[in-house]
């Protein structure tokens, strides 16, 4: 995947490589759900299977942070899906896979559109400020390290789900890793590792006192 650069003009972002745009990713998700009452996870995986690993971490994490994540049990299901993707990244798979019972799970297209609409301001901010820097920090051992960190973060979600909005912390770190992979931004990768440490501290604080 080539380096991504962005130019800001008159408050707008010029994205030469739309495939690395968070806004474009949300558009493609909406397109996949167009004209359907619901969308299964298999369709979502197929929509992004020719892209980098980034969307497979970023998109589920952002959905968990959105109103969809407020549905009981959804954060844990999303964490399981992210964990499966993280393990496949560690294994170096070129295409992502979900077991049938997860691939057949559906999301309401209406709720999906509401969620993506809520995420638009976040997408605009991310597309404006994050682009290729220190790209070498998003490759090789650093990529595998990020996948391992995401896997560890997903393990914190089920217990944190018992505390309102607490699961947002690990999902924010996972989203940062996913975005860093999408736009090959090593500086953002460093921030994601910092958020991982912060999440660990928050989790220990919650459960120890």
Provide structural commentary.
The protein contains 9 helices and 4 strands; from the N terminus they run E-E-H-E-H-H-H-H-E-H-H-H-H. By secondary structure, it is mainly alpha-helical. The protein has a two-stranded antiparallel sheet with strand order 1-2. A two-stranded antiparallel ribbon has the order 3-4. Helix 1 (22-33) runs antiparallel to helix 6, helix 3 packs antiparallel against helix 4 and helix 8 (168-183) runs antiparallel to helix 9 (186-208). The longest helix has 23 residues, at 186-208. The chain is globular. The termini are far apart.
Keywords:
single chain, 209 residues, mainly alpha, two-stranded antiparallel sheet, 4 strands, disordered N terminus
Describe how the helices and strands are arranged.
Layout: E1 7-9, E2 12-14, H1 22-33, E3 38-40, H2 41-48, H3 54-65, H4 74-91, H5 100-103, E4 106-108, H6 109-129, H7 140-160, H8 168-183, H9 186-208
Antiparallel strand pairs: 1-2, 3-4
Helix pairs in contact: 1-2, 1-6, 3-4, 3-8, 4-7, 7-8, 7-9, 8-9
Order of helices and strands: EEHEHHHHEHHHH
Low-confidence stretches: 1-18
Strand order of the largest sheet: 1-2
Task: Estimate what percentage of residues fall within beta strands.
Answer: 5-15%
Distance between the termini: 45 Å
Q: Which descriptor suits the 3D outline?
A: globular
Task: Give a quick summary of the entry.
The protein has 209 residues and is mainly alpha-helical. The chain has nine helices and four strands, in the order ββαβααααβαααα. The longest helix has 23 residues, at 186-208.
